[in-house]
Here is the input.
Amino acid sequence: MRIFWTIIALLVLATVAMLYARGRARPPAPAPVPAPAQAADTPRPTPPAERPVPAQPIVDRPLAPSAPDPSHAPPPRTPQVAETPAPVEDPNPAPAIELPVVPERDVAASTEHLRPGFVGPPPPGAPEVAADDATIREAPFTDSAANTAAPTPAAAGAREPSAADSAATIAAAQGPAKLEPQPDGTVLVDGRFVMRGDGSRDKPYEVTWEHLMSVQETYKPRMGLKVIPDRVQMLHNKWVKISGYVAFPVMAEGLDEMLMMLNQWDGCCIGVPPTPFDAIEVKLDKPAEGETRLLIMGTVTGKLQVDPYLVKDWLVSLYLMDDTVVGKQSGAPLRESEVRQEHLAP
Here is the structure.
């Protein structure tokens, strides 16, 4: 019986020990957060009572003084000016210089005898003219004097060409060209242009740009002029030699075509673009190679064709040249001004 109660007591003690150990191992529970106090529960401070402000007594103040009376205004102040000291007299004054009085004279009357056509003795007091100066000497005639000479009465009365003059020019262009052989072997065409050669392959015509450009005097299709003068038509299918500026195409497989021009042009922006009257479309007999491709100026020799190409009466091209040989510039003249024409001198 004692053993039984002993076992019961041990079990109770063991249970109490286990409960105690668990209680110590568990963390303490967090303290509860106190709830915020309500605003209604917080007592508000009572504002202090306002003290009455005693009323200020009303005091009558005088108004601002009015403007001062002009009669009592102080007199204006007079500015003080510094006195200029009197000039000191020179004890040895310089003598006064008297200028001579020049009598007045009539300039027109004194120079009357100098006018052209004056007849009679010079007026008294007029300047004398030396005998050598009175005679106007005629200066020798020179080429420079001819360029700067005053226009003659005929030139002063020159007028614009009329319709009758244009008709006469067209009628003259329709006739055969006037060829005048010269002692130096050249030919004077229509009394204006000098031409060398006979038009053969061995002796081609050496013409100038003025000769080719003269066609525009009577051939402008868009203006109703459609006559090619015989002096230009005679060059058709003839061998011609001429010098000028050269322009090869920029993008081309073979350089067998080029443009011969009177004025320099790079094909874009530099120079003067050509017209149908001062350019020749050239077809070379063989493509250009070597130094020929770099030419800027040159001479071409080939068979010229006067073949107008029109687009609705607008002239696109006029001169073509086939079987052409191009080389460096030779003796063929560029412009008519470079040709010596002694037989045209007066």
Notes: Helices lie at 2-25, 107-110, 131-134, 143-148, 153-156, 163-174, 209-213, 230-233.
